[in-house]
């Protein structure tokens, strides 16, 4: 009987912990972005649902299952918008605006129609800036007036659209690569190119739309793809790319001067050899760490 009571107590305790465990570490309470609080831990009591326009957005946290919570005095309320779950919250650079995804109300195919909403933190006014389908992926701020939204468009296909916070399409939808990275100053968009026998990168100026392409064609891209990498300098003045060396089986890291029309200013070869069908390159670190060192030279 005592053993039975002990087992029931353990099960009950586990159930209570599962119900009341809301993800908030102490350091997350001061975080300026909900994305900083992906995995946090503390106890709070669930107290229902609250609309995001009725809470202090700087007190939000996100628990491990993706729901957004407002926690105050040990009480947790699930935060939604217009009765729909929200996700992918990001503050604008000035912290005056907050963007988030939510499912389009009334859609019977839950999750297949998504809306990117932009909320003025001071007035709580909310504007629908973008509507997409289930292929909509991540998004990020360029500045307080412009946003870039990424989406899957097939295989292989990964596109982007640049919009204003008011919903005006400024560029796209179109494709530059299969993955993307904004330069630190948000002036350039880099797309990593990796498809049949073609490997490298394409770079586009966000304002002028001018593009630069750095690709190798007619190569066994499957073997070289795991080494291909790119890295911006912290001041966005240099771009480093790692790709197959022309007329050689080796790799080559190249540093480009952004201000000088992407003129190559430094090159460093990396010896490679094929062992059967595997490509092995003499690289002392990961491609990303290797390029970080090259940028310092």
Keywords:
disordered N terminus, four-stranded antiparallel beta sheet, mainly beta, 297 residues, eight-stranded mixed beta sheet, 24 strands, 3 helices
In short:
The chain has 297 residues and is mostly beta strands. The protein has 3 helices and 24 strands.
What pattern of helices and strands is seen along the backbone?
HEEEEEEEEEEEEEEEEEEHEEEEEEH
Shape: elongated
Main β-sheet description? 8 strands, mixed
Task: Kindly report the average pLDDT value.
Answer: 80
Beta-strand portion reads over 45%
Protein name: Dipeptidylpeptidase IV N-terminal domain-containing protein
Organism: Candidatus Komeilibacteria bacterium RIFCSPLOWO2_02_FULL_48_11
Give an overview in words.
With 297 residues, the chain is mainly β. Among the domains are: 1-81, no CATH class; 83-177. It has helices at residues 2-20, 221-224, 287-295, and strands at residues 21-22, 42-43, 45-51, 60-62, 68-72, 75-81, 84-91, 97-103, 113-120, 126-133, 136-143, 146-154, 157-164, 169-177, 179-182, 188-195, 198-205, 211-217, 229-232, 238-244, 251-257, 263-270, 272-275, 278-281. It is elongated and about 65 Å long. It comes from Candidatus Komeilibacteria bacterium RIFCSPLOWO2_02_FULL_48_11.
């Amino acid at each position: 009987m005592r053993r039975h009571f002990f087992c029931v107590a353990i099960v009950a305790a586990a159930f209570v912990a599962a119900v009341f465990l809301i993800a908030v570490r102490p350091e997350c309470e001061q975080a300026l972005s909900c994305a900083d609080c992906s995995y946090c831990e503390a106890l709070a009591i669930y107290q229902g649902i609250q609309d995001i326009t009725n809470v202090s957005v700087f007190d939000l946290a996100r628990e491990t299952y993706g729901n957004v919570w407002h926690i105050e005095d040990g009480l947790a309320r699930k935060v939604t918008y217009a009765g729909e779950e929200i996700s992918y919250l990001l503050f604008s650079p000035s912290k005056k605006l907050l963007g988030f995804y939510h499912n389009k109300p009334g859609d019977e195919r839950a999750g297949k129609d998504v809306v990117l909403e932009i909320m003025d933190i001071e007035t709580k006014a909310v504007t629908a800036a973008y509507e997409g389908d289930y292929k909509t992926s991540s998004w990020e701020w360029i500045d307080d007036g412009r946003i870039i939204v990424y989406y899957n468009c097939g295989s292989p296909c990964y596109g982007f659209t640049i919009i204003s916070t008011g919903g005006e399409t400024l560029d796209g939808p179109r494709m530059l690569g299969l993955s993307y990275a904004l330069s630190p100053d948000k002036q350039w968009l880099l797309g990593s190119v990796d498809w049949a026998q073609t490997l490298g990168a394409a770079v586009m100026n966000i304002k002028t739309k001018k593009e630069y392409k750095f690709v190798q064609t007619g190569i066994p891209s499957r073997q070289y793809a795991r080494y291909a990498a790119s890295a911006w300098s912290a001041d966005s003045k240099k771009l480093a790319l790692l790709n197959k060396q022309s007329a050689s089986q080796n790799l080559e890291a190249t540093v480009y001067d952004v201000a000088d029309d992407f003129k190559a200013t430094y090159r460093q070869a990396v010896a490679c050899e094929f062992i059967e069908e595997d490509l092995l390159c003499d690289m002392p670190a990961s491609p990303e760490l290797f390029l970080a060192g090259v940028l310092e030279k």
